[in-house]
Amino acid sequence: MKALLLATLIAALAGFAAVAALMPHAHAADAAAVKVVVNQLATQYMCQCGCGLTLASCTHGVCGPRDRTLAEIRRMVEGGKTPAEITAALVAQYGEAVLAAPPRRGLNLLAWWGPYAALLAGAVTILLLGAAWTRRPGPQRAASPSALSPEQRRLLDEELRKFDA
Amino acid sequence: MSELGNLSIALAALVSAYGLVAALLGAGLRRADLQHSARNAVYAVFLLLSVASGILLYQALTRDFGNAYVASYSSRDLGLWYTVSVWWAGQAGSLLFWAWLLAGFGAVVVWRQAGYRELMPYIIATVMGVSVFFTLLLAVVSSPFARLAFAPPDGQGLNPLLQNPGMFFHPPTQYLGYVGFTIPFAFAIAAMATKRLDDEWIRATRRWTLASWFFLTLGVLFGMQWAYVELGWGGYWAWDPVENASLLPWLTGTAFLHSVMIQEKRDMLKVWNLVLIVLTFGLVIFGTFLTRSGVLSSVHSFALSSMGPLFFAFIAVILIVSFTLLALRLPWLKSAGDLDSLVSRESSFLFNNLILVGAAFSVFLGTIFPMISEAVRGVKISVGAPFFNQVNVPIGLALLLVMGLCPLLAWRKASLANLSRNFLFPGALGLLTAVGLIVAGLRQPVAVTAFALSAFVTATILLDFHRGAMVRRGHGEPYPLALGRLVLRNRRRYGGYVVHLGVILLFAGMAGSAFSSQQEAVLRPGQTVTINQYTLRYEGISQYPTQSAMVTAATLTVFNSGAPIAVMNPQRNIHRGHEEQPMTEVAIRSTMMEDLYVILAGIGEDGTANFKVIVNPLMMWMWIGGVLMSLGTVVAFWPERREALRARARYLVGAEA
């Protein structure tokens, strides 16, 4: 029994020793991980100094608002908050303007999807117009001042074929 | 002296107004004497604004700090060249620079393109109309010759951020590009006013358009380079409103540059080309408005003022006049040409235009969206880099794809044989690149797609060069000579391809930034920080005064895989008169593979130094791409005498008809 207790004690001590030995590395790893997360989040929020840039790209050498916000973010990351919780906390404190990209809801959807909708509409227009232009009747084409005679067209095709070859 | 400057500006405003009225009356009443007088008015405005500019430069160089503008933007310790740059460093001076360039370009048009007699009165009226706006701003709102009650012994000096060689390159090229687009716009207005709506206005302004595009491209690239080396955050483009403002006319101008080819070759897209040049010019004024109005916060906020409403009104006038004229001329703008097939080079140009204008719309919407949100919801929001990157990356990739497809498709109609023959090699190369990158461990889909498309587009361009050279070689020319002559005989086409190769390198550099890595460290002398294969050992700090600043420089020895390769000296400087805001001067070590970018972020009182070290892959390729784009534009721009004669002959035939 004694031997068992002794073995357990030794194992526990060894375990503690191992954990203690690893602790600085664990701290270093945690600190590095926090830094990575903070750096990543710094690209998602605007600096409050009025530079109009994200925390990651604020150009001021010394910037109190940037350093304060980064410190807040670091504290929240170290406190185990998720990015969504951090976002909520920053929005509650600074308003929606702290977000470098507007949230995808309501009127903001116009900014997010407007360009694609416009591109889609444009593509459809090109396809419809293109189809209409290619279906124009022959006589109208012949009436066009820039239209070529069939012979000229044949020669042009030939030249283009030669060039492509 | 200042009185003479003010008088010159006031007279320039008056003569501009006279030129506008005389030109319009001369055209309306068919009075040659009035038209001639309007032409002379353009020369007079140029002369008057040259006098005003000369006085401003003289006052800056002789340190006349009784001039409020000179006192605000220069100081006794400012070197000669930075003193010259005071001309465009502040609002009043840069408006004078704008107006002077405009008058100069107007004078060149009146002198060199006098043959376009019917168009000329309206060209003059447009140029003078724009000149009236800028000279009035200078005369009434923002004079560069306002005097101080007492002349201070020294000026406030130039903002330290502006004390960079970029100051000589970025603003002048940007303005040359901006102002240059006034000329094609003026020709477009003249074409609509005179109903001469064939492609002559386009041919007459082809080189103006190319030159303006060239300078705007240089302006944007110099701005990126300046931001990269000066702003000290490791990037080159922050999607700042003023940066966006320079990109907007570049995007629509690029679309215009492409779509005019369709009008020249196929007599199509007449309305679209007019819309594009009006939009481009409108965006040029919008860009100047954003830079000068301070309506959106920006890193360029040294240019804040309250002249926003005036610019806004001017943009409204431009758009209303242009689009009303366009609507009235619609019956004369019917396309004579047809599209033979949807699978053709013409249609690929249409899609190229769609994507470029779509990108411009996306950037425009993102830039002004904070104002829309505040007006509609009453909620302030921000639209920053993450938004623009997410929305624009797919659009950029689509543009790259179309850039590759375009040279593969035949004019008029691409046959199946044409497609399979042209697509096989470039398509296979693109695919192989994608597979190779994935096998090599690359997992970012955007970067893989960008590199694969870059390979695809490069192959299409090189294939086109090769085929052209082979055709010439068939006529007995040695291959290198055939290649050279191919380019010389068709400078526009092959110059354009060289520009495209530059764009690909630019995209490759941008894709490289997806793999940038960074490390922050607080070090004592002797300690090291490691990033990728680099180890940087902090050796210590030195401090020394210069003429205008107290410099604090850190010394770092850089090791690559253990071997010493460089010594870097990032700085943190306190400029005289700007003590509250220390400036970082980054240290950059560039190779073809990557940039090692070191920022001295702070210095502790305990002898520690705070460093931010960034490795930016492929940055050099971006700048090489910029050089290639410039070279290609020069090739395309190089005058072809035959083409000029042909254009002139066409115009004369048209005038007699």
Topology:
The complex is a heterodimer of chains A (165) and B (657).
Chain A: H1 2-42, H2 64-78, H3 83-94, H4 108-134, H5 138-143, H6 150-164
Chain B: H1 2-28, H2 32-61, H3 68-73, H4 80-84, H5 86-89, H6 91-112, H7 120-141, H8 166-180, H9 182-194, H10 200-230, H11 241-266, H12 270-293, H13 308-329, H14 345-376, H15 385-408, H16 416-439, H17 445-473, H18 479-489, H19 491-512, E1 517-523, E2 528-531, E3 534-545, E4 549-560, E5 563-568, E6 571-575, E7 583-585, E8 587-590, E9 594-603, E10 609-617, H20 619-637, H21 641-656
Antiparallel strand pairs in B: 1-10, 2-3, 3-4, 4-5, 4-6, 6-7, 8-9, 9-10
Helix pairs in contact in B: 1-2, 1-7, 2-6, 2-7, 6-7, 6-8, 7-9, 8-10, 9-10, 9-12, 10-11, 10-20, 11-12, 11-14, 12-13, 14-15, 15-17, 16-17, 17-18, 17-19, 18-19, 19-20
Describe what this molecule looks like in 3D:
The complex is a heterodimer of chains A (165) and B (657). With 165 residues, chain A is mainly alpha-helical. Chain A contains six helices and no strands. Chain A has two domains: 2-98, Helicase, Ruva Protein, domain 3; 108-164. With 657 residues, chain B is an alpha+beta fold. Among the domains of chain B are: 1-158; 399-513 and 622-634, no CATH class; 515-620. Chain B has 21 helices and ten strands. In chain B, strands 2, 3, 4, 5, 6 and 7 form a six-stranded antiparallel β-sheet that branches. A four-stranded antiparallel β-sheet of chain B has the order 1-10-9-8, with no helix packed on it. In chain B, a hairpin with a 3-residue loop joins strand 8 (587-590) and strand 9. The mean pLDDT of chain B is 88. The interface between A and B is large, with 52 and 69 residues.
